[in-house]
Amino acid sequence: MTTAMKIDFVSDVSCPWCVVGLRALQEAIAQIGDDVRVDLHFQPFELNPQMADGGQDIVEHISEKYGSSPAQIAANGEAIRARGAALGFTFNMDKRNRIYNTFDAHRLLHWAELEGKQLALKTALFEAYFTDGLNPSDHTVLVAMALKAGLDADQARKVLESGAYADEVRAQEQFYQGQGIRAVPAIIINDRHLISGGQPVEVFEQALRQIADTETV
Question: Could you tell me which of 137, 134, 130, 55 has the C-alpha nearest to residue 103?
Fold first, then answer.
């Protein structure tokens, strides 16, 4: 019997552990196979909503925000790189040297969901920032990623230039903050079950199987 399962993946496109979490979740879903039918939605969360245009040097930013030393930042970066590699994702840490505002990326993701291409765009945005070192606040980059995801480039440009879906994104951000989400990734299953962080594949698989065994959606 196949169990329908709604998953809200709350994340930011500049969050490396969100990449790890998504890849691990996808692998877990694949391993479960036909026992679960997943309806996946990406929900917005901004790690740095006040980030100015042009962004900030990433080492400077992490040092200021978390009090991490350069050695700690390097060690954490290597841990993320290794986790990504094990899941088939390439983190090029030497190319990711700045942190940026991601609000427009979330607006585009909102539109992409309406077009049925949200996962493809999310994947493209992760690769653009973490693999290629591109700026996810740059409209040229965002339009290129929309095209890569199979979306219409002209329509993507119109969305970005018009400020469309700003209210919807802010409302969703406020909703999840109101639900107590303070860090990402936060994976919410069937509006009831929360899994926090970039967990290993086996943790996601076990949780999904347990939920599937106890719930009928």
Answer: 137
